[in-house]
Amino acid sequence: SYTVHFDMVFDQPFTASQVITETGQPGPNSVFLTFNAGSNHVVQAKVGLSYVSAANATANLAAENSAFDFNATQTAAHSAWNTLLNKMQIAGGTATQQQLFYTSLYHALQHPNLVSDVNGQYMGFDNAVHTAAAGHGQYDQFSGWDVYHAQTQLSALVAPSQTSDIAQSLVNDYAQGGTFPQWGFMNFYNWVMAGDPATAALPTYYAFGATGFDTSTALADMLHEATTDNNVRRGTTLENTYGYLPDDLYNGSLCCCNVHVPAASLPDYD
Description:
Helices cover 37% and strands 13% of the residues. With 270 residues, the chain is α+β, with helices and mostly antiparallel strands. The strands form 4 sheets. Strands 1-4 form a two-stranded antiparallel sheet.
């Protein structure tokens, strides 16, 4: 559903190459390279990625990793993650348990991930190129299913700046695609689950410290999505009429934990 552009550079020239295209495939799917490693058995490669263009992939590589220095790159990555993980300090338990805690925290902060290039460009949910606001980035891979129970709060507490951009990215997705992604896969609505998780995640981001996004637009989007028939909330009119969905509009994808609760029975929160 999306295209990955890349620029791959090696620290020594290759002596031969072969492009492989499988029968029935629209284009090449692999490349074999041969190196003369007689005198140097170590070949270093670095790759710039972009979801917009090959030129952007080249620019990303030049801006983010211009030299061939494996140890310096490893040290920089370690330092950046160590700074982020050190925002949470723990005590007690065994060394293994502490390692498990920080490994889990590292995993929880992997996604959503930055998809905009160094020039701010990214591919939107309308399949057009957009540019993120200066100093901000566009994030994707919003795993909406259940992350609003804990991961959204954790992300906002530990990384409020990046999480604010994640929230704004959801608002951008709505503007470009017409709905919030339930489980966005790059710039693609895959409708993998029922439910409207973004409307739970956005106010949670704000409540736990990630407040740097267009909240008025986010609120308007949430209200509109909750009160109209759309691909996220299919059957809204029927549910408002009868208090339930009289047909299986989700073709069997409803989970046992998706239960309709009348608004009158919900507690009143300020």
